[in-house]
Design a protein that fits this description.
With 458 residues, the protein is of the alpha/beta class. Helix content is 37%, strand content 16%. α7 runs antiparallel to α11. The chain is globular and about 70 Å long.
Length: 458
Amino acid sequence: MLVFISDLHMSDGTAGPPNIPAEAFIGTFQEIGARAKSAEAEEVTFIFLGDIYDLIRTTAWFDGCVPKESSPWGTGPTEESALKVIHDVLEKNREVFEDILPNSYVRFGFKTDPRRVFVPGNHDRPCNLYPELRKLTAKTLGLTHFSHKQPLTEEALDERGFAHYYANIAHRTFARHGHEFDSFNFEGSSALRSEVWTDIPEYFFRATPIGDVIACEIASKLPRAVLCNLSTDHALRDAVTRNLKDLFDVRPLGGIVGWLASLVERFHDPEVTNAINVGTRQVVSEFAEIPFVRQWIKRNRSWIRPLAIGNEVEVLIKCLSDFNLSTLEKALPIAQRATALFSGDDYATQASQEFARLDNNPSEPHWKNAFSYVLYGHTHQPTQQAISALDNGDDHMERIYLNTGMWRPSINMGITSGFASWKSLTYSIIYQPGEIAGDHKGTQSSSFETWSGTLRIS
């Protein structure tokens, strides 16, 4: 039995809403333990599928807590600064990372201590860059294996990082975090456009993506910049503060412009409007002057491809540099452009192409027709999508894409206007042949369950 959990985004609390409380983990792990017992699973593996920690959404990278040049996009990133940030994350979430995740599985009813595997995402990418961060990650998640079969040792963590995907033929399952398909959060590789499986070079995973800089130097910095331009005794200051902290959970990321416009409309206060306008212009101006950003735009700009990503970011910076939300009509074109730019790729199509590459792996010929499930995280949208069906005599195999969702609140942009918010908690289970899924007796093929809890309190 495999259990996939992703996108917890546990942070140091300096640049966003509260983290998930320990009680949510306790209740969920009790449910999973009961399912493992019901399935008569002899062995359970937890796969933490990326963005478990959030080392990007923090004020530490720009408030002087660590030297600016030592940030992941600075001129000299350091292990010491990354350690400072992750220690703050762990301290803020002490009960989760010291008690629940690493060593409390027995109390949740599992027959044996589950295996535990970690696949890095983009927001916990620094956890895979340095030996000491890898060791902390292994300790606080209670990791036991690098992969399905390879045990993890502390000595090995000095020499190598965590794998960027998880493959388990017994469960017919392949999984990766999924940021590899997001051009803002992965520098890209031709391997993902090939029809033949090719290992993605490690340097792509080590490279800092522009999405990290946007998430920290714009989204995380914006609340502070707005409040700095709002008088300390303003009657709406506390309400503005609460709403600005929600920026982290606006979906899609480009919806932030629309979210700011909705705040202007909601508060209908000239001083609040001015603070949002001035604060936004300030953070965008500072963002544009970061050497990493200037170099990234230069690399990704194209004179012959007007829609090149560097061109689009450059235009968006220009629009936001003149930001003025005096009317919603003025905000709409910018919001539409930002939303289109950050909406992301079609992950079901990516999963379909992933299946094709898995079938065509020269170094692993036994992978052909071996996988029924491809799982991604990253999008924060729990999904079940049929891809195809294979028939080979008596062997019928359905291929399905699953997205593991998130454990976060979300503020979702409406199709026609406005936003709606709710809290979500999602996990996915893959059963191997013979295990009992729900009320069904063990089958000769693998099966799956996804569980998504959603809470809306108006």
